[in-house]
Specification:
The chain has 297 residues and is an alpha+beta fold. It has seven helices and twelve strands.
Length: 297
């Protein structure tokens, strides 16, 4: 059953803004954000042009929940609290780095501004590399780099075409969200795509992660069957055919709850305890083969 919190009338401007936000959140087509995440200069040696970074992905349509007091249906406020003096205004808080337990170095806003780098306002290309040299572990979030002024379009397109013709990825740095980040630039259609890259100290080496996995190779016959299963399921990358089934189920749950339907608890999923790996592979091959023939027919 849906619970509606009673509130007073909203100012018209805020109501329109909220309605616009909901419409964007419910859209199935992600759109470029209205505001850039970062603005500055793209620089290649002595050539530069004004650019802006926009997020290439959106998660506005994701379901999010608020914490409510079940007795009043009021939304809970997260209030900064000092264990000794009680609630504190967020605007009065300062940043501190803990050097030992409960001992901090306190930094003011002016002191933090004093360490800002050139990359706060500039993406300076430092190196060009082959894409294959960048391990996928290091790729992070994608962004669109777009010319910010008409006067910089020519320099922008020169850099884009040089990247395209040489087949290289440009590496640079930029300050985003108070952190300097390594970025990779590559041509994409008429523009330039930027990926933030993880720094070396952010990536756990695969050798460390997989250290306890035995080095012994499995039965060649099993590998051959697994390869045939892979061949049966091979296809093109079509992201539009995939969707978040859990979020779809959540939306359905909310819709049914809103209508006051009686909900039935789903049965727990039981994992089959596979005893004979070879037999399981053979059954999988027969099952996928039959499914492929039915689909083709």
């Amino acid at each position: 059953m849906a619970v509606r919190k009673k509130t007073g009338p909203r100012p018209k401007s805020k109501a329109k803004k909220a309605a616009h936000h909901r419409a964007a959140a419910n859209s199935n087509e992600p759109r470029l954000p209205a505001r850039p995440i970062w603005q500055g200069q793209l620089r290649l040696s002595l050539v530069s042009c004004p650019v802006a970074l926009y997020g290439a992905t959106r998660r506005d349509a994701d379901i999010s929940f608020h914490l409510l007091n079940p007795k009043t249906s009021n939304r809970i406020r997260m209030i900064p609290t000092d264990p000794d003096t009680g609630p504190v205004e967020r605007a009065d808080l300062v940043k501190g780095y803990e050097i030992t337990k409960n001992h901090y170095v306190v930094l003011s806003a002016d002191e933090l501004d004093a360490v800002k780098l050139e990359t706060t306002h500039t993406i300076e290309i430092e190196r060009f590399v082959d894409e294959k040299q960048i391990d996928r572990l290091y790729w992070n979030d994608p962004y669109y780099l777009i010319p910010n002024e008409k006067t910089g379009v020519e320099a922008y397109t020169v850099i884009r075409e040089a990247l395209r013709q040489t087949g290289r990825i440009a590496l640079g740095r930029v300050v985003m969200h108070t952190r300097e980040r390594l970025v990779a630039l590559e041509p994409k259609d008429k523009g330039i795509l930027v990926y933030t890259l993880r720094m070396a100290d952010e990536v756990v080496p695969p050798k460390e992660a997989f250290a306890d996995i035995p080095a012994a190779r499995p039965d060649k016959r099993m590998i051959e069957i697994a390869r045939k299963i892979i061949e049966q399921q091979e296809g093109a990358f079509e992201p539009e055919k995939f969707h978040d089934r859990y979020e779809t189920a959540l939306r359905d749950l909310i819709r049914r709850k809103q209508k006051g339907e009686k909900l039935v608890t789903a049965e727990s999923v039981q994992d089959d305890n596979v005893i004979d790996l070879m037999e399981a592979l053979r059954k999988s091959l027969r099952h996928k083969g039959g499914a492929a023939k039915r689909k083709a027919g």
